[in-house]
Every structure is written in C-alpha cells, then in structure tokens.
Request: fold
Amino acid sequence: MNRSRNLAAAQIDRLTADLHALAEFVDASMPGWTRRALAEPYRESRSWVAALMKSAGLEVSRDKAGNILGRLPGQGSRPGALVTGSHTDSVVGGGRFDGICGVLGAIEAARCLQESGVQLVHDLLVVDFFGEETNDFGFGCFGSRAAAEGIPESFLDRRDQDDVPLHERLAVDGIDPGEIGTPVWVPGTVKAFVELHVEQGPTLAEQNLPIGVVTAITGIERLIARFLGRADHAGTRAMTDRRDAMVAAAQAVLAIQRTGCEAPVHGVATTTKVENANPSPNVVASRVTLQSELRSIDASWLHGARRRVSEQILEAAQACGVDVEVDWSTDNEVVPTDLVVQDTTAGVLDGLGIPWMPIPSGATHDAVHMATLAPAGMIFIPSRNGGISHSPDEWTDAQDIATGVDALAATLVALDRT
Ligand code: HGY
Ligand code: MN
Ligand code: MN
Ligand code: MN
Reply:
C-alpha cells in the first residue's frame, strides 16, 4: 500500500505527538476518549488547539459560533479562502480519530506547505468547528451550521435532559444566541472546502486502499414518537385488556429496524432511545417516548422510508389501543460533494500515485453545511479494527493519516490554481 510520500518521518512524528496530546483532554468519569462540547475538557482542549494553530504560523481567531479559525494569508490576489477542517468534540465513549484527524491533519498540512515554501494565492483557513456531534439538545454540526446557515430559533429554544435551556449552556462558552440566528460567516468568503476524515466504516481497509474520495454525504431524518397508553396494575389487569405504551413502542422499534434492513445500499435505521415516563416495575407503561433516525444517500428511499415507518408506528399503536404522536425533523438532506473538488482530488491522487476509490459517507460531517457556502469535498482515510467508530476501539494508523495529509495538502494547492 502506498505510504505517505511527502511527509517526512519527523512530520509524521509531530502529527502523532499532537494526536496523543489532544487525547489527554478527556472527561475521566466517562468511557473512551469522551470530549463533549459545552463541557470543561472540551473548553480546555480548544485553547490547546488554538495555541497549536498559532505555533504552526497561523493567525488565530474565534468566530461568534465558537469555531476556532487559523488563517495562513495567501498572496491575496484572489477572493475567498480555501477552507479545511473538522471537529475535535466526541460522542460519549468516543475515540481519538473521528473529526480530530481533520483538524490536526489540516494544521499539519498548513505546516508542510510553509515548510516546503509553497505560497498559496488564496488564504488558507484551518477550522476547528464547534460541537459537530449531536449535542444534548438533539442536533449536531453546531459551529458549521451557525457559520453557513445560522442556528434556527426552534433549536435555540430547546432544553437539555436537566431542563437547562441551550442559551444558558452557550453562555459558558461565550456564545451569544442573539448573534448566531443568521449565518455567522459572510457569503462569498469561501472559495472551496475540503474535509479530511476517518471513514468510520470498513470499506477502505477491506479494499486495502489508503484514500476514499467522498461522493455523497448521507441525509438524516430524525423521529420522536410519543406513545400514550393507560397506566394500570401490572399484576391484575388482563393481558388482553391493556393499553401498554411500551409494547407499542417495542413493535415500533422492530418496524424501524426492519425498514433499515430492507434499504438499498447505504440505508440505515436506528432507534437510540426508548424512555418510559413512569418506570415503576408494577405499573403498565402509560407514556413512552422513542427516538430514532433514518439515514441514506438515496434521497427517494429516505423519504419513502419515513412514510413507511410512520404507517407502521400508527398500526402498532392501534393494535395496542395506544395513541401516538410522530414528529419527524430533517437534520440534513443528502449532500452530493462537488464534482470539481472530487475530480481535483482524484487527479492529485493519480499524480501522487496514491490509489483511491469513490466512497459515500454514512456519517454526516461539517462539510454538509460548508457545501451551502462553497464547493465542498471530503477525503477519507481508513478506519482499522473492522471500521469501528464512535467507540474507544476506533483506530487509524499514523501512516494513513500522513497519506491523508499529503492528499489534502496537494488538493488545496490544486484548488488554489482553479
Ligand atoms: O452523526 C454523525 O454521523 C456524525 O458522527 N456526527
Ligand atoms: Mn462522529
Ligand atoms: Mn466526525
Ligand atoms: Mn465531521
């Protein structure tokens, strides 16, 4: 397998040292390498990231959405910056590579460009986007969404599981909700966006390939279903005479899972939460809330599946004599990556002799929101350990990250000339 050709051993060692250093900022009370946005370890880690950007010769600033920006001025004769970056927050029990490779790899790419004397025409902007993972308020990509579209009023009114409103949590990070309702970045200031990211799946490793050029990023439909049955004595009420909200929810979980299994390529369905409002062991469940999501890069399947899942949930509730409210929200539509960015990346890889394959992304990324601002693309590097991710077992080899940095730096140089 082609290894990193342009990164010297010293540069790979430097990048590895950065990965280890960032992995120190975790919530020790949680499993894996947990670094949740809006929490202390994350806050401390971002000061470290800002200092790293500064030491890499970047002009560091923080925008109103909490994104950390490291700018490498270009020769300045062309408008719009070449932007690259990702996120450094994690899921609970997450790993050390998801998002992180795209931020530390981008900083390394900026260092390598300077060390090899390359001067871009456009500014280069390296970004650590604030809070990409789904937060306690049920949405993700906070920083990139705020930068590109603004955060919707309905999101800002949400409260977390402790009934704390989002604006209160944001205040600790110095983010003013009044300043993020409209796009935080000025349209026209981005020439193109490229995100380096681990695949979070097994394909590249199975194909023994070091790089994936992402063709499309999954759409996500999120569901909250509220089942309303009748509380009753669990020991006396006849089985045929119950209105058991938990049984209706259980049948809905299986219907959602069946729908995911029927999907064509890259369709999935997951139920991540079933909550009984009254978990007393001797009471028939009266109120149960279920949270699920459907994903696919096939927009027509995704919308059809949403309708089919709703129908099956209503049928399950009816059969149990239970009422149900089904609320859907589109977290993001399917996003095809930009063909020019794809082709530029492919041409660069062929030029470097680095083998690659086109690959869709079942995970969503900050690139989804950057794509509303400018042509956007993604470069994947292999996830080892069977492609496991959102887990402490997530792993990507340093050599693979270095090859990704090679590909990223060369793609940025090529896009700089378009
Ligand atoms: O949910 C996702 O796909 C991403 O990891 N936030
Ligand atoms: Mn993730
Ligand atoms: Mn990610
Ligand atoms: Mn991402």
In short: Residues 299-319 form the longest helix (21 residues). The chain has two domains: 3-218+334-416, 219-332. Residues 87, 98-99, 132, 197, 365 surround manganese (II) ion (ligand 3) (CB under 6 Å).
